[in-house]
What we know:
The chain is mostly helical. The protein is built from four helices and two strands. Strands 1-2 form a two-stranded antiparallel sheet. Strand 1 and strand 2 (10-11) form a beta hairpin.
Amino acid sequence: MSKNPRTGKIARHHVSPSSLQKSFKEALRKSRVPKNASPHTLRHSFATHLLQDGYDIRTIQDLLGHKEISTTMIYTHVLQNNRLGVQSPIDV
Length: 92
């Protein structure tokens, strides 16, 4: 909640997507993170980490607000690299 400077009324105010993206890019620049990222990158990382931690796809679908499970399934590509959890002796 914040106070509207014109009316003095206290209410919830929405942030425009472009304003959020601009603030995110500025924070990224100030943090000196060398990678290109956006607020959507955080959403993608959130879903990916949940999958890697073993959360079920329906829970992730609900958290992301996807209507169709097929939309959420795009995140399962990270599990395809090592579906059985086998560790190579070379990596040990």
